[in-house]
Amino acid sequence: MLKNRPRFARPLLPLASVLLILGSALSACAVPTSNATPRPGSTSTQPSAETATVTREATLPPDEEAPGERIYPVLLEGHSDSVTSAEFSLDGARVVTASDDQTAIVWDVSTGAPIAVLRGHSGSLSAAHFDDAGARVVTAALDGTARVWDAASGEQLIGLTGHEGFVNGARFDPSGRRIVTAGEDGAARIWDARTGDLLAVLSGHGGPVRSAVFHPDGSQIATAHDHSTVGIWDAVDGSELFVLPESILEGQYTNLAVHTVLFSPDGGRLVAAGEDGFVNVWDTETGANLLRINAHSRGITWADLSPDGNRIVSASYLAGVASTWDALDGSELATIEYGSIINDVAFSADGKSVAIVGSDPAVWVWDAASGEALAVLEGHTEAIHAVDYSSTGEELVTSSADGTARILNASLPV
Length: 414
Prior knowledge:
Elements: H1 15-26, E1 53-56, E2 74-77, E3 83-88, E4 94-99, E5 103-108, E6 114-119, E7 125-130, E8 136-141, E9 145-150, E10 156-161, E11 167-172, E12 178-183, E13 188-192, E14 198-202, E15 209-214, E16 220-225, E17 229-234, E18 240-245, E19 258-263, E20 269-274, E21 278-283, E22 289-294, E23 302-305, E24 311-316, E25 321-326, E26 332-337, E27 342-347, E28 353-358, E29 363-367, E30 373-377, E31 384-389, E32 395-400, E33 404-409
Antiparallel strand pairs: 1-2, 2-33, 3-4, 4-5, 5-6, 7-8, 8-9, 9-10, 11-12, 12-13, 13-14, 15-16, 16-17, 17-18, 19-20, 20-21, 21-22, 23-24, 24-25, 25-26, 27-28, 28-29, 29-30, 31-32, 32-33
């Protein structure tokens, strides 16, 4: 739910890291399979606002439904290929989905109806995010570009070109005046969100930039790199303020990727996590390391910070295990045995619950303090790529390899 958290649903792991992780994981665990229905659809067929549809699936028999009561789940259909990400706008009124079909779709949460189809990319989309006002969407794609769109009309406002390779992500700053993009070419770039002018290039670490996020006040940018480093940069002039070494391991392990960087709500701390298995917390004013948590022996692919900044959840992609931590003293709160590949984790608005999605086509919701399972939300037929809570914490949105997204009631019982 924290709006600066990266939402890159399927990490592009370096080959050396994949071999390292697979070598240990395959000998230690077997990943369960599900009875998933093969997905129909073609990447050559692109949706329109007319063909995108919504289906409401009742959770109560018709004679028990309360008049005017919202019926869950709401099935958002319209993409013709895997849906890579889904995110609520900050006010919870809209959802934007991104897909391998090279489009994004903006949906009305109150009705479940499609508002606009964002069409123009020539490659799969890696991310789509709203600005804080919910008026614009920025998309990042494997065609090497990012684009800014009007969220109501679907009109493309500007195109951001200059990366030499995939664009792994793109975010607005809190004011909506600047955008940062993270590139496979080893650079992050700062752009004017109104004109599309390039303002600064953040480079020098080598290897792909996996994630780039703005400080809550827009003054800094944090970047996560493949070479076990995190950069903190001045968001105005692009100068590098700190280089934070993520890994303390030696030899070949120093090139493991950092996947997640997250600013605390007050901006005073930065959380970083990656394939070395550690969660680090840094002071953003001094660059001092405040916490170093030895979290997962098989590396960390996903992490989230609770909206109040007091808890961290980390997840090991192949091990199928997530853990929650006290963000102030580093103590472990709970270990969650998900038992399958984990694709994304997210805190609820109050920080009390954690949603986990992965190769199991159901959403599992857990108590963040005890690790107790609170809800299992079923409906998808294939792996779920991403999950996001609404600002109230009452709803979840998921995106799946089955080509759909779903708006779910986050409080349904097991």
